[in-house]
Amino acid sequence: MKKGKGKNTFYWGRNVTLLFDSWKTDSWFSYSLTLIACLLFSVFYQYMEDRRLRFKLLSSSAVSNNVDGAVDATPLLNTKIFATGSRWRLGRVAGSILFGINSALGYFLMPTIMSFNGCVFVAIVVGLAV
């Protein structure tokens, strides 16, 4: 993190430390790989958020619209587990697990942005937008 006179400001240099003391960039190659990793990580975060929200939507519609216990679903999600009783509870547990994973991913992105490196910030914002 760039520190100077008691306040943090954005900087645009290639020397950055992210999350761990061992993740330091000292060359353009390592800096480029770090930016690509930030971009991909933020894309994955948004993908997981989308899956979690779809999972929540499908589980609630499966419970309220349950005629024969089946609802159309994406290949990632099998909503037959939301039919009734313990199956519905299993769906809620799975939704909670997805929420936990997504929260952990978000909490890793936060200190990454707080490195105050301008290109890291841009890479994460672009990844979230993708």
UniProtKB/TrEMBL annotation:
Protein name: Uncharacterized protein
Species of provenance: Cichorium intybus
